[in-house]
Automatic annotation (TrEMBL), chain A:
Main function: May regulate transcription elongation by RNA polymerase II. May enhance transcriptional pausing at sites proximal to the promoter, which may in turn facilitate the assembly of an elongation competent RNA polymerase II complex.
InterPro entries according to UniProt: RPABC4/Spt4, Spt4, Spt4/RpoE2_Znf, Spt4_sf
Assigned GO CC terms: DSIF complex
Name recorded for this polypeptide: Transcription elongation factor SPT4 homolog
Family: Belongs to the SPT4 family.
Annotated localization: Nucleus
Any one GO biological process: transcription elongation-coupled chromatin remodeling
Source organism of this protein record: Rubroshorea leprosula
Family annotation (Gene3D superfamilies): 3.30.40.210
Occurrences of domain Spt4/RpoE2 zinc finger (ranges): 16-92
Annotated GO MF terms: RNA polymerase II complex binding; zinc ion binding
Major localization listed first in the record, in broad terms: nucleus
SUPFAM superfamilies, sorted: RNA polymerase subunits
PANTHER family registered for this protein in UniProt: SUPPRESSOR OF TY 4, TRANSCRIPTION ELONGATION FACTOR SPT4
From TrEMBL, chain B:
Source organism: Rubroshorea leprosula
Domain KOW as annotated: residue spans: 251-278, 402-429, 459-486, 561-588
Family membership: Belongs to the SPT5 family.
Cross-referenced SUPFAM superfamilies: Translation proteins SH3-like domain (SSF50104)
This protein's name: Transcription elongation factor SPT5
Compartments where found: Nucleus
GO cellular component: DSIF complex
Stretches the record annotates as Disordered: 1-28, 69-90, 533-558
Biological process terms in GO annotation: regulation of DNA-templated transcription elongation; regulation of transcription by RNA polymerase II; transcription elongation by RNA polymerase II
Molecular function terms from GO: mRNA binding
Superkingdom of the organism of origin: Eukaryota
Biological classification of the source: Eukaryota, Viridiplantae, Streptophyta, Embryophyta, Tracheophyta
Length: 116, 671
């Protein structure tokens, strides 16, 4: 395994949330402890209110990516550049605009969810 | 037919092949070369056109976009093309195993991770070429998922790991995926699986991505909830299907409007509060339909007759429940705040909260909440965001508005946004309007502009008197106090309440205007000047003088004038029962100064006390909705023995040089 993996969710109830940019899935408390491993600039561990803005409990499906560099599924889902961890296939909402701007400032890509 | 690559020249190519269309014609292949900055060696850009070579050959499979060839691989792919479809599966399995024996080796053959910019640039070039070349082609099976060329470049190839379907304990799918992740972290390189996928809608199974079945088996060892017995490989052509997410599940989220399909609340609008995708259940809030008395009886053990009717929707009144001795529990939820438990049901802010509602028992498509339904939710809902939702939902679901000639309108979308004017003509979806010239630079605008009805709204300036002709507030007249996008806030004349209605549901109800009045209203539009408008000939019956078509007895004025100064009582309409004094007579209407309200109002002369005709007031002055002609046969007063003959179409004083028989009571529509 290449990079250090993200925290693995410790429970699977309502507290489970997905990051709106990278779709990493962890519990609320885990985001509070160590933020998002792929999106440190959101600083969720510093500003706890950010968690609600940056993550959503509405998501569909879970994929545990052990090796993002070799996974076809991760590539297809555009997760190949992120750290190993548990992700979701799709989120229901887009990142709020101000946070999208933050992504631009940080020169990190953001792809809004597709609406069919 | 092999194409040999010269290994020494170290060319790296990228190839994209078009999938066959339905008729089985080969669309051809295209090769694109890319520079690989990762590799120091110079890459030669060379283009080869393969169309001639593969002119008639059938290809039933798709090929991945990016591929590094070594010679063996190239030969294999060619053979693949030559094979019939039946042989293809075996081939893939065989090559997969052979080529990818060493995991490390696989890496070199992989598409390297390029810096973002380069990837995008190349994809654009790719996109252009493909679009140019295959503009007319139809698409194969899974193209529905592939809407972007970019995505097409990511299709699975023979070099990628396969997906394996593995049976597991129901309800544990997500946990097992996470468990495998943990195992991977613990065991590091011992665990060779690449990823594990738990789909919300698929119970009992998970997918594991791995190069070999043996790797899958090894990974499942020691996990009690997963069975290594039932392992099935997924067809390469079906791999993308595995990862496509049902859009319905995603569209449903907090705040979405849905309708209940069954039970007491069947057909009722409900608002989604929470979604559980795994268990396919939602929590919704509804306006309760509870018969409190029946509930009280039931709880006291009394006999309750089987309900033969559904109670009307009404917000829960906790005090009322308590008065009926229904036990009420007041609780607090750390997430949602206060709520009440009554009769085993949960109420929050007056709404009934239904939890554990199966997704199958709600409709999510084409909900089309009506304005009134949303308004009802607003009443006690209280949350600010509800308003934003309402307005946007309304504009999304707005039913077709009926514009008729003379309606004052405003453009709300497109280049002409904010332009005001009047409707000239309506042709199905296109409305022709006469723009209001408020600035000198607008003089160059054409006399008539065509606007799509979707981009147009009826427009009523604050201060305008209007009447509601549709919805629950139908019949109300009042003055526009405020305009909020598509909504009007009107001060009701009768109830003195402020009501909210859609602009679509309202028509102008101004008093009949004299010359001076017209100038006043135009002053709102700035320096607009009324040209003398001859009526459109096509709307008249032959030979009729437009100025006389509605007027038959000019002499009649003298008779009507006799009313001035008389004290009268109003018999019908919103001012029914009021006494007042006639101050002026204008055509078929009189202006009465109301005794009680210190108000000057206009009423149809027939509703005042010296008249016995019981015709409804004010309706007659509105043009029929959707009707083109403003002439109402029903209002002919000829039947009234006592009244002065007032004639159809006569709505403006004859003195007005701009009089137009097709006018309603709004300012004359300029031609």
């Amino acid at each position: 395994m290449g990079s250090a993996p993200a925290q693995i969710p410790t429970s699977f109830g309502h507290e489970l949330r997905a990051c709106l940019r990278c779709r990493l899935v962890k519990t609320y408390d885990q985001f509070r402890e160590s933020g998002c491993e792929n999106c440190p600039f959101f600083k969720m561990e510093e500003d706890n209110e950010r968690i609600v803005d940056c993550t959503t409990p509405n998501f569909n499906g879970i994929i545990s990516v052990m090796d993002p560099t070799r996974s076809w599924a991760a590539r297809w889902l555009r997760l190949a550049r992120f750290v190993p961890g548990c992700y979701t296939l799709a989120v229901s909402e887009a990142l709020p605009e101000d946070l999208q701007n933050l992504c631009e400032d940080e020169h990190v890509p953001y792809v809004p969810p597709k609406r069919v | 037919m092999a194409r040999r690559r010269d290994e020494e020249s170290e060319e790296y190519e990228e190839e994209l092949e078009q999938v066959m269309d339905d008729e089985g014609e080969v669309q051809g292949r295209q090769r694109l070369k890319r520079r690989r900055s990762v590799f120091a060696d110079h890459v030669v850009d060379e283009e080869e056109d393969d169309d001639e070579d593969y002119g008639g050959r059938r290809q039933k499979t798709y090929r991945r976009a990016a591929q590094y060839f070594d010679i063996e691989a190239e030969v294999d792919s060619d053979e693949e093309e030559e094979d019939e479809e039946e042989g293809e599966d075996d081939f893939i399995v065989a090559s997969g195993a052979d080529l990818l024996g060493e995991d490390d080796g696989g890496r070199i053959h992989r598409l390297p991770l390029l810096p973002q910019d380069e990837e995008e640039e190349d994809v654009e070039a790719l996109e252009r070429r493909i679009q140019a070349k295959y503009a007319r082609s139809s698409h194969a099976e899974y193209d529905e998922e592939i809407t972007e060329v970019e995505q097409q470049a990511l299709l699975p190839s023979v070099k990628d790991p396969s997906l394996w379907l593995v049976k597991c304990a129901t309800g544990c799918e997500r946990e097992i995926a996470a468990c495998l992740m943990q195992k991977c972290i613990d065991k590091r390189s011992e665990l060779q699986i690449i990823s594990a996928i738990a789909l919300d809608h698929l119970k009992n199974y998970i997918y594991i991505e791995a190069y070999r079945e043996a790797h899958v088996r090894e990974a499942c060892k020691g996990l009690c909830k997963i069975s290594a017995k039932d392992i099935k490989r997924v067809e390469i052509t079906e791999m993308t299907d595995v990862l496509s997410v049902k859009s319905k599940a995603i569209d449903l989220s907090g705040g979405t409007w849905v309708r209940m399909k069954r039970g007491t609340y069947k057909g009722d609008l409900a608002k989604v509060v929470d979604v559980d995708n795994v268990r396919q259940k939602v929590k919704v809030k509804l306006i309760p339909r509870i018969d409190l008395q029946a509930l009280a009886n039931k709880l006291e053990g009394k006999e309750v007759p089987k309900k033969s009717f559904v109670p009307p929707p009404r917000f829960m009144n906790v005090a009322e429940a308590r008065n009926l001795h229904i036990p009420v529990k007041h609780k607090r939820d750390k997430v949602n705040g206060d709520y009440f438990e009554i009769g085993g049901m949960k109420f929050e802010g007056g709404f009934l909260c239904k939890e554990e509602v199966s997704m199958t028992s709600i409709s999510t498509q084409n909900i089309m909440p009506t304005f009134d339904e949303i308004e009802n939710f607003r009443k006690l809902g209280g949350r600010g965001d509800g308003d934003i939702v309402s307005l946007s939902t309304l504009s999304a679901n707005r039913r077709k508005a009926y514009f008729i000639r003379g309606d004052p309108v405003i453009v709300v979308k497109g280049d002409l946004k904010d332009l005001k004017g009047w409707v000239e003509k309506v042709e199905e979806e296109i409305v022709h309007i006469k723009p209001a010239i408020t600035k000198p630079e607008m003089e160059h605008l054409p006399k008539t502009l065509s606007v799509n009805e979707k981009e147009l709204r009826k427009y009523f300036e604050p201060g305008k008197r209007v009447k509601v002709v549709s919805g629950t507030k139908e019949g109300t007249t009042g003055m526009v106090v405020k305009v909020e996008q598509n909504l009007l806030i009107i001060l009701s004349e009768t109830t003195k309440e402020h009501i909210r209605v859609l602009a679509d549901d309202v028509v102008d109800c101004s008093e009949v205007t004299g010359e001076t009045k017209i100038d006043d209203s135009y002053s709102r539009f700035g320096s607009f000047r009324i040209p003398h408008i001859p009526p459109t000939p096509s709307r008249l019956s032959k030979g009729e003088n437009p100025y006389n078509s509605g007027v038959r007895h000019r002499r009649g004025r003298g008779q009507r004038d006799g009313l001035v100064g008389m004290t009268v009582k109003i018999r019908l309409g919103p001012y029914k029962g009021c006494r007042g004094r006639v101050v002026d007579v204008r055509g078929p209407s009189v202006r009465v100064e109301l005794e009680s309200q210190m108000n000057l109002v206009t009423v149809d002369r027939r509703v005042i006390s010296d008249n016995v005709v019981s015709t409804a007031y004010c309706d007659t002055f509105q043009c029929g909705r959707g009707g083109e002609t403003p002439l109402h046969p029903c209002m002919t007063p000829m039947r009234d023995p006592g009244a002065t003959p007032i004639h159809d179409g006569m709505r403006t004083p004859m003195r007005n040089p701009a009089w137009n028989p097709y006018l309603r009571l709004s300012p004359p529509s300029p031609a």
